[in-house]
């Protein structure tokens, strides 16, 4: 059975006879269930059972509950969810190409895909495709409800079989999709029938296209495509080709310009130096190439330097319209070539890893309006000019910013907030959600003392069977994080633990470590700052940049095996940290699922009784 297909248009109908659904970017799948068989097929009627065993196994688990409903056929989309309105196209493509049973099995357990059901085609062996869509949707929802399956799409849902709800409010749904980075929206006529293999105007899709600026790098004589490029770290990289969207006059004008300004030419291709800037409409980036690009126009008002990889990435960021990037070419550091666009691109790419640590805390930032070329200042109060989407929270007469979204993060980044400092407790709580030891050597020259302190602490923590998480401070030291269950311990209790650990190390290694608060009395010893862990105090957030004159370094989470004499703070630049998360798991991946209070509380009791 081939699926019914929607027609692509640039706008949607708004009449009452239409309903609207999120369009997910994955593989179309028809799920057919009998009393003895389960079949998952593609839009080309090829079996997908081998590729997505987790879906088959999930259906097998509920097969007894379906005995009175089979044969049963459901239409849906197979996806790797990023959030409730967006899926990961690149990941699902990789998954779909796998042939190794073992690799598929591993991924099906570690990163299972979901089947998002949006239509019901057959119940008890009777086709219902001629019934109005609205009836089919209601029956599908009732089915999912009776099976206690999710009635909304959520990445956090335990079950990978999920029902796709519809909305009657196009504007609200489109705004949600845009802010979540979804592929688009599908409008379906309430009375539409399901027509196998037919591309119908009863179903209309509109895609969430982005726009970016590229320059022309050449022309392919054989297929008529123009090649597109941008600068990355001063080097031209190719990001795609375009032909669609041009009028005959625009194509003719472009070919004339290329002919008059061409570089190398052979029988197949004409090269041209970066000079012609065009605006491109595209769906997304896949393997660093534009998906579904089309020509939108020439941009004679732009400078060639504005066509950068960082700005191309930022054009894909799903953010509020009020977030306007200003002065992207502004240099930020004296010693390294980091422009504002690079910093904002870093925040965008690291946001999924950084936001969980700041999204429910009262935020203090250090802003550098002129980069490292001018003065910096602390900002706690949310400024009056902050847009309405910025979340605020009051505490002790201060209206703090709560950075709970990518839009908020990039708005702050555009204000050149370099350093993100967070308290140890969450909003509306006076008790810590983590313990953090700050290992502060006198200078970077004595970083080896921070490594030694961390290693000695790890020995103690291992004896207590504590799971702990090290990170660079981004400046000259290290910090050791220990997660706690919310409101499980008070600051008075955690002080007992932190003071005990600090004083033990000072007693054991008096020439290396100290708890002396006065800098002049520390000498060249590392300061074990256990007093900093208290209500009202803050710590640099994981993955935050640091505003230091000698380079743009990151407060990067580490794996414990990296905490050794080879560890080099200056290696952890924005580029290096981004490369790490592409190849290694985030060292703090299990942070919020590993609270240690049940292990620490008995230790505190024992300390107090001795």
From TrEMBL:
<keyword id="KW-0808">Transferase</keyword>
<keyword id="KW-0548">Nucleotidyltransferase</keyword>
<dbReference type="InterPro" id="IPR012310">
    <property type="entry name" value="DNA_ligase_ATP-dep_cent"/>
</dbReference>
<comment type="similarity">
    <text>In the C-terminal section; belongs to the ATP-dependent DNA ligase family.</text>
</comment>
<dbReference type="GO" id="GO:0003910">
    <property type="term" value="F:DNA ligase (ATP) activity"/>
</dbReference>
<dbReference type="GO" id="GO:0003887">
    <property type="term" value="F:DNA-directed DNA polymerase activity"/>
</dbReference>
<dbReference type="GO" id="GO:0003677">
    <property type="term" value="F:DNA binding"/>
</dbReference>
<dbReference type="GO" id="GO:0004527">
    <property type="term" value="F:exonuclease activity"/>
</dbReference>
<dbReference type="InterPro" id="IPR033652">
    <property type="entry name" value="LigD_Pol-like_3"/>
</dbReference>
<keyword id="KW-0234">DNA repair</keyword>
<dbReference type="InterPro" id="IPR014143">
    <property type="entry name" value="NHEJ_ligase_prk"/>
</dbReference>
<keyword id="KW-0378">Hydrolase</keyword>
<dbReference type="GO" id="GO:0046872">
    <property type="term" value="F:metal ion binding"/>
</dbReference>
<dbReference type="GO" id="GO:0006310">
    <property type="term" value="P:DNA recombination"/>
</dbReference>
<keyword id="KW-0511">Multifunctional enzyme</keyword>
<dbReference type="GO" id="GO:0006281">
    <property type="term" value="P:DNA repair"/>
</dbReference>
<keyword id="KW-0540">Nuclease</keyword>
<keyword id="KW-0233">DNA recombination</keyword>
<comment type="similarity">
    <text>In the N-terminal section; belongs to the LigD polymerase family.</text>
</comment>
<dbReference type="InterPro" id="IPR052171">
    <property type="entry name" value="NHEJ_LigD"/>
</dbReference>
<keyword id="KW-0269">Exonuclease</keyword>
<dbReference type="InterPro" id="IPR016059">
    <property type="entry name" value="DNA_ligase_ATP-dep_CS"/>
</dbReference>
<keyword id="KW-0547">Nucleotide-binding</keyword>
<dbReference type="Pfam" id="PF21686">
    <property type="entry name" value="LigD_Prim-Pol"/>
</dbReference>
<keyword id="KW-0464">Manganese</keyword>
<keyword id="KW-0238">DNA-binding</keyword>
<keyword id="KW-0239">DNA-directed DNA polymerase</keyword>
<dbReference type="InterPro" id="IPR014146">
    <property type="entry name" value="LigD_ligase_dom"/>
</dbReference>
<keyword id="KW-0227">DNA damage</keyword>
<dbReference type="Pfam" id="PF01068">
    <property type="entry name" value="DNA_ligase_A_M"/>
</dbReference>
<keyword id="KW-0479">Metal-binding</keyword>
<dbReference type="InterPro" id="IPR012340">
    <property type="entry name" value="NA-bd_OB-fold"/>
</dbReference>
<keyword id="KW-0436">Ligase</keyword>
<keyword id="KW-0067">ATP-binding</keyword>
<protein>
    <recommendedName>
        <fullName>DNA ligase (ATP)</fullName>
        <ecNumber>6.5.1.1</ecNumber>
    </recommendedName>
</protein>
<dbReference type="InterPro" id="IPR014145">
    <property type="entry name" value="LigD_pol_dom"/>
</dbReference>
<feature type="domain" description="ATP-dependent DNA ligase family profile">
    <location>
        <begin position="106"/>
        <end position="207"/>
    </location>
</feature>
<dbReference type="GO" id="GO:0005524">
    <property type="term" value="F:ATP binding"/>
</dbReference>
């Amino acid at each position: 059975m081939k699926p019914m297909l929607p027609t692509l248009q640039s706008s949607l109908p708004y009449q009452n006879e239409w309903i609207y659904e999120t369009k997910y970017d994955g593989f179309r799948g028809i799920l057919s269930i009998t009393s003895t068989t389960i079949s998952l097929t593609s839009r080309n009627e090829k079996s997908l059972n081998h590729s997505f065993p987790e879906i088959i196994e999930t259906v097998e688990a509920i097969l007894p509950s379906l005995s009175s409903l089979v044969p049963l056929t459901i239409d849906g989309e197979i996806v790797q969810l990023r959030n409730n309105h967006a899926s990961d196209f690149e990941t699902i493509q990789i998954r779909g190409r796998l042939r190794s049973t073992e690799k598929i099995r591993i991924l099906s357990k570690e990163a299972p895909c979901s089947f998002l059901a949006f239509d019901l085609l057959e119940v008890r062996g009777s086709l219902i495709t001629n019934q109005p869509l609205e009836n089919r949707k209601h029956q599908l929802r009732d089915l999912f409800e009776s099976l206690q399956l999710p009635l909304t799409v959520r990445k956090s849902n335990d079950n990978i079989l999920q029902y796709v709800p519809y909305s009657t409010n196009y504007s609200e749904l489109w705004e949600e999709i845009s802010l979540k980075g979804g592929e688009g929206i599908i409008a379906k006529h309430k009375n539409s029938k399901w027509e196998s293999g037919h591309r119908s105007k009863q179903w209309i899709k509109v895609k969430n296209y982005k726009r970016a600026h590229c320059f022309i790098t050449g022309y392919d004589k054989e297929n008529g495509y123009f090649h597109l490029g941008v600068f990355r770290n001063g080097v031209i990289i190719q990001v795609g080709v375009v032909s669609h969207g041009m009028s005959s006059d625009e194509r003719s004008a472009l070919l004339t310009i290329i002919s008059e300004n061409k570089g190398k030419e052979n029988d197949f291709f004409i090269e041209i130096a970066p000079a012609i800037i065009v605006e491109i409409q595209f769906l997304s980036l896949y393997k660093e190439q534009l998906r579904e690009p089309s020509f939108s126009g020439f941009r004679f008002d732009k400078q060639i330097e504005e066509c950068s990889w960082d700005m191309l990435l930022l054009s894909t960021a799903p953010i509020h319209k009020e977030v306007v990037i200003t002065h992207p070419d502004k240099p930020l550091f004296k010693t390294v070539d980091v422009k504002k666009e690079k910093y904002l691109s870093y925040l965008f790419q690291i946001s999924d890893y950084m936001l969980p640590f700041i999204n429910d805390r009262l935020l203090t930032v250090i802003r550098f309006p002129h980069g490292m070329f001018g003065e910096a200042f602390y900002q706690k109060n949310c400024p009056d000019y902050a847009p309405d989407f910025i979340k605020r929270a009051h505490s002790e007469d201060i209206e703090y910013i709560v950075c709970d979204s990518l839009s908020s993060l990039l708005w702050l980044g555009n204000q050149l907030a370099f350093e993100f400092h967070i308290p140890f407790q969450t909003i509306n709580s006076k008790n810590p959600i983590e313990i953090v030891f700050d290992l502060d050597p006198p200078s970077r020259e004595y970083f080896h003392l921070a490594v030694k302190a961390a290693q000695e602490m790890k020995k103690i923590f291992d004896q207590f069977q504590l799971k702990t998480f090290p990170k660079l401070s981004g400046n000259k030291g290290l910090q050791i994080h220990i997660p706690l269950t919310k409101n499980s311990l008070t600051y008075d209790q955690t002080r007992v633990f932190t003071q005990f650990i600090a004083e033990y190390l000072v007693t054991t290694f008096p020439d290396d470590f100290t708890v002396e608060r006065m800098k002049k009395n520390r000498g060249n010893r590392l300061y074990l700052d256990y007093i900093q862990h208290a209500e009202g105090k803050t710590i640099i957030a994981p993955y935050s940049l640091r505003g230091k004159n000698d380079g743009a370094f990151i407060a990067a989470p580490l794996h414990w095996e990296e905490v050794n004499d080879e560890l080099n703070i200056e290696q952890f630049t924005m580029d290096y940290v981004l490369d790490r998360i592409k190849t290694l798991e985030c060292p703090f991946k299990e942070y919020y699922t590993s609270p240690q209070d049940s292990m620490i509380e008995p230790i505190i009791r024992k300390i107090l009784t001795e």
